[in-house]
Every structure is written in structure tokens, then in C-alpha cells.
Specification:
There is one protein chain. The strands form three sheets. Strands 1-2-3-4-5-6-9 form a seven-stranded mixed β-sheet. A six-stranded mixed β-sheet has the order 10-11-12-13-14-15. Strands 7-8 form a two-stranded antiparallel sheet. Helix 6 packs antiparallel against helix 7, helix 7 crosses helix 9 and helix 8 packs antiparallel against helix 9. It contains nine helices and 15 strands. By secondary structure, the protein is of the alpha/beta class. The protein binds zinc ion. The site of zinc ion has 6 residues, from loops. Zinc ion binds next to loops.
């Protein structure tokens, strides 16, 4: 999968779209009941002790970041619930030495089920760390109307044990791993994880690489603030950092800038049409320019327009 980074972005988006065929509607695949045998978990080396785990042959949830070394293992996000055993088998294979410890920490970038589905499974082994609002949202039933999803409250063992308001650091496998909250981006509880020595970022669902993002406007997300957050990330993190996105292939700052440009341009189009008095249906019927077509996947052009529209209505 390393090779995928040498392929042009548009082609990569198409490949990823093709890879993610199984029952998805962003997070609504959280409803998937079974571990589909055709879907496997692939390993993408990133830098130093960091690897990225992806779904191959279908949708298994968000990308997982792994730090594996002498202190044991720390993972970021844990895919959809049915894939916990497959994910565990992959993690076992990543152990760097016999005496190296097992899974110690699990960080959630946000509350969605395609990033926290394994929490109940791994919560018995690892200390779960996430933003204050991730625990709050997971502890109560939630609804995402745009996907007609009703999500029950998570069991106690799935809830984050250590929570923070702004940021926290974990010192692990020879580096400081900074966990920083960015408010009102994809949700109201998103964090960015920075492996400071390995120069790797996991941006969770504030970065969909080459794909239209989903933004959970009902739970505090907003396209305007997420675009601003992404701008802050571009300014504050190293220009040569490798970036694990919530969805899509391993990326870099140029890919992040490309997503920000898409967000700015498409938001302006929807905003101008709203100012001209057009309804959501009319704006969706008019669509977006051809150049953004390759970004459509499970988050279709219509859904993306609705996300922008809902954000601007707030
Ligand atoms: Zn999400």
C-alpha cells in the first residue's frame, strides 16, 4: 500500500472509493452487524514506530494509528465493532519483541462508532483517552438524522477513562505524543494526535484525504470552524509531517491544503446560492463543478452540499 502515495490524488480517491465499497454511509456502517470475511486489515508503514491500519476490500471504519515499541502499544481509534478481533490479530503481529508489552493506551479522535467501535473490546486491556465530550456523547443515546441513525449509550467499559478539556500528553515509546482538542470541527469533541519525534499526525475525521468529509453538525461540527481548524493545523504543525487521515490514504500537508481549498471553494458556492434565496433541494439539483466529482464517495455531492447548508444555517 506504500505505493499508493505516488499515485495522483484524484486516482487515489477513486481507488479508495473502490476499496471502501461495503455498507457505508460514513458512520452508518456502525450498524454493520458482522465482520465481513472479504474485508481484511492492511498495514501501511508511516515513520519510526508508527504504522497505519486500513480496511482492504471494504469499509471497516476509520484509519487506526499504532505506536509499537519497547513500552508496548498505543493505538488511535479502533474501527467498527465487528472488526475488533481482526484488529487485535493485526496488532499482535506488529509487536516488536517478545518482551514488549501489550496494548497500553487507546486514544479516540472523536465519538463516532467507526472510530470507537472496538472500545468495549479493548477497554479491558487499554486505558482509553479522549476529549471530555467524547465520554459525554458516548455515555448517552445519540441520533444522527442525516443518516437516520440511532446510537445507544455505550457500555461502561467502552468509555474513556482519562479525559481532558484542551490537551494532554502521553510519553511513550521514546517520544511525547501530544493530544490536542480542536473545537467544533467534525464534531464538538475532536482531537489531533501529534507524534512529536516521529513527525506523524493523526487528524481523525478533521481530515478526509481526497474524499468529501462528513461533518456532524448535530453534534457541534461545522464546515466553517472545521475549515478554520484545518488552517490552524497547517500553520502549527511541521510542513513535512506525515498525516494519517480519518478516512482515505496516508497523506501530507499538501493533501490537507487541497482538502481545505475544496472546503473553501464548495462552501462559497453553497453560500452564494443560499444568499440568492435557493432552497437546499435547488442547490443540490444544481450540483458542484465537475472538478470536485472525484471527491464523491459514500459522502455524495448531495450529502456534502447538505452538510455545508446545515452548517451555514446554524
Ligand atoms: Zn467521524
Amino acid at each position: 500500500m506504500k505505493i499508493i502515495n505516488s499515485i495522483p490524488l484524484v486516482t487515489r480517491a477513486l481507488i479508495v472509493s473502490a476499496l471502501l465499497l461495503a455498507g457505508f454511509g460514513a458512520i452508518n456502517a456502525a450498524r454493520a452487524k458482522s465482520d465481513k470475511p472479504e474485508i481484511t486489515i492492511g498495514v501501511v508503514p508511516v515513520a519510526g514506530p508508527i504504522t497505519m491500519l486500513i480496511g482492504v476490500g471494504g469499509f471497516s471504519g476509520g484509519n487506526v494509528g499504532v505506536s509499537a515499541g519497547p513500552d508496548g502499544m498505543l493505538i488511535i481509534d479502533d474501527k467498527l465493532k465487528p472488526f475488533s478481533k481482526k484488529l487485535e490479530a493485526r496488532l499482535d503481529a506488529l509487536k516488536t519483541c517478545l518482551e514488549c508489552g501489550d496494548l497500553k493506551f487507546l486514544i479516540n479522535t472523536h465519538w463516532h462508532g467507526d472510530h470507537t467501535g472496538g472500545n468495549a473490546y479493548f477497554g479491558g486491556q487499554a486505558v482509553i483517552v479522549a476529549h471530555d465530550n467524547v465520554r459525554k456523547l458516548m455515555a448517552a443515546p445519540q441520533e444522527i438524522k442525516i443518516f437516520k441513525m440511532k446510537i445507544p449509550a455505550a457500555p461502561d467499559q467502552a468509555l474513556p477513562v482519562i479525559t481532558y478539556r484542551n490537551s494532554v500528553s502521553v510519553h511513550f515509546n521514546g517520544e511525547e505524543i501530544r493530544i490536542i482538542h480542536f473545537p467544533n470541527g467534525h464534531t464538538d469533541g475532536d482531537s489531533v494526535i501529534h507524534f512529536t519525534k516521529s513527525n506523524v499526525l493523526h487528524l481523525g475525521d478533521q481530515f478526509f484525504n481526497g474524499l468529501f468529509p462528513f461533518i456532524d453538525v448535530e453534534h457541534g461540527g461545522n464546515v466553517v470552524t472545521m475549515t478554520r481548524n484545518v488552517g490552524e493545523m497547517i500553520d502549527m504543525f511541521p510542513a513535512d509531517a506525515k498525516i494519517i487521515p480519518g478516512h482515505g490514504p496516508l497523506g501530507d500537508m499538501n493533501d490537507l491544503k487541497t482538502m481545505r481549498a475544496m472546503m473553501k471553494a464548495t462552501t462559497k458556492i453553497v453560500q452564494d446560492r443560499m444568499k440568492a434565496g435557493k432552497s437546499l433541494k435547488e442547490i443540490q439539483a444544481a450540483g458542484l463543478p465537475e472538478k470536485w466529482k472525484s471527491w464523491s464517495w459514500r459522502i455524495s455531492t448531495e450529502t456534502w452540499i447538505a452538510v455545508i447548508y446545515d452548517s451555514l444555517k446554524k
